[in-house]
Specification:
442 residues; 14 helices; 14% strand
Length: 442
């Protein structure tokens, strides 16, 4: 396929020798307890290529976690690596703030290649290295442009860990960890087929916005994920997304689409909301933009929303030149319609494979997703089942994540260019892990 960037003919990386490996346990004791993923994947990983990782002992792992969605093209895609080597060997700037550089121009051209064919007239800024930086900038733009402070977010939402982003994040545990008040945000129900509010969620929002005695002032913006990732792989119905945008537009409320984890063709189209036929006022992107996990985030917005003056939102690392150089190569690959079609086909295959495994286990569990973000909801088999399945998958050589309320959903994010054989292998390992967990006492 013209969009494939893996090199299956390349020799595998040699496993690290024992003498080359840092004594992990001794040094790890100095690190703060806030670390989390090392507990789910307790190995010292030394190399990665495509869909696979290798640990210090030479063991191979199939990676359906992919840096929480940062590695949409898998590990070490050769064409992106080549661009980074060229940048480094040419003594190009590595740190550039918002100075004009060839790497910045390359990023602009790559973005135009994504936006112009879609008829999108967005302006854009690079606010800093993380998705949370982008969310903070988007909220600031919305409040400045409208002169209003309030924001509406949704149950199950996750938008980041800085204070503004935490304010629109629904997870009670991470909100309380801030130790600060998180004001000016009202939460409304996100569509969920398990609960009766789904059918009436938009009508409820419309009533509250129009009722002068609802106690909720007209907000500056609504922020929404068209597929909630950390919330448990919950895709919003396309008609719901279209209705939400229409409702907000008719009342002068801006729509911020958070595509940090599910953008960049993760759902089969470059923007996750494309299938709903809507154009949000503001879009935030991060994670997969650089193709190799280098920090980069972007905020896209309507030209009339360019309301922040020079220096009113900045950061020392907003000009990550290596990330710009990588993104200039990555974005055309991700925006290729051939890749999008491949993602949709592979996602449909993977859902079928996972449903077969659920049926073989003899349980009632929902498999859901869009494109290659996939979730198996195991809540009806026990609150700790998904976390146990995650650990058992890892023991058998597969990285997956537990997500959603109380971590009851097994979440999978394979590389977009994953081989079909790897999808079959991953589904088989998941099925074996699921049956092993169900057969053993908790």
């Amino acid at each position: 396929m013209p969009v494939r960037v893996l090199d299956p003919a390349a020799p595998a990386a040699a496993p690290a020798r024992a003498a080359d490996v840092v004594p992990v346990q001794r040094l790890a004791s100095r690190e703060a307890a806030v670390r989390s993923y090392h507990a789910a994947y307790p190995k010292n990983f030394v190399s990665g290529r495509g869909s696979h990782l290798q640990d210090a002992q030479g063991a191979r792992y199939l990676d359906f976690f992919c840096g929480a969605g940062a590695m949409n093209l898998g590990h070490n895609p050769p064409v992106v690596k080549a661009a980074l080597v060229e940048h480094l060997q040419g003594d190009a700037l590595l740190h550039g703030l918002d100075l004009e550089t060839p790497a910045r121009e390359g990023l602009r051209q790559a973005l135009d290649g994504v936006l112009v064919p879609r008829g999108l007239d967005y302006k854009y800024l690079s606010p800093g290295p993380t998705g949370a930086n982008a969310v903070e900038a988007a909220l600031k733009i919305a409040r400045r442009a409208t002169g209003r402070r309030g924001v509406i977010a949704f149950t199950g939402a996750f938008h980041g860990m800085s204070l503004g982003a935490l304010g629109v994040t629904a997870n009670r545990q991470v909100r309380e960890a801030s130790g600060a008040a998180l004001p000016d945000v009202t939460f409304f129900p996100f569509p969920d087929p398990r609960h009766p509010w789904t059918e009436h969620s938009l009508a409820h929002l419309e009533h509250v916005l129009d009722d002068t005695h609802s106690g909720v002032a007209l907000p500056a913006a609504v922020i929404v994920e068209s597929v909630q990732a950390e919330g448990g792989v919950n895709p919003a119905p396309l008609e719901w997304m279209a209705g939400l945008v229409a409702l907000c537009r008719s009342r002068g409320v801006l729509v911020i689409a958070d595509d940090i984890q599910v953008g960049c063709t993760r759902t089969g189209t470059f923007f996750s909301f494309d299938a709903a036929g809507v154009t949000p006022d503001i879009v935030v992107l991060a994670k997969a933009l650089s193709g190799v996990g280098l920090p980069l985030s972007l905020v896209l917005f309507r030209p009339d929303l360019d309301v922040l003056g020079p220096g009113e939102h900045n950061g020392t690392f907003r000009g990550n030149q290596l990330a710009f150089a990588a993104a200039a190569v990555t974005l055309p690959l991700l925006a290729d319609p051939a890749l999008g079609g491949e993602v949709l086909a592979k996602g449909a295959l993977m859902q079928d494979l996972l449903r077969d495994q659920v049926a073989a286990a003899g349980i009632d569990a929902t498999v859901r997703g869009r494109g290659l973000i996939l979730g198996v909801d195991l809540v009806d088999t026990g609150r700790d089942t998904a976390s146990r399945v995650q650990r058992e998958c890892f023991r058998r050589g597969l990285l997956v994540e537990a997500a959603g309320r109380h971590d009851t959903v097994v979440k999978m994010l394979p590389p977009l260019n994953v081989e079909h054989a790897d999808l079959h292998e991953g589904a088989d390992v998941f099925g074996q892990a699921l049956q092993a967990v169900l057969a053993s006492p908790s």
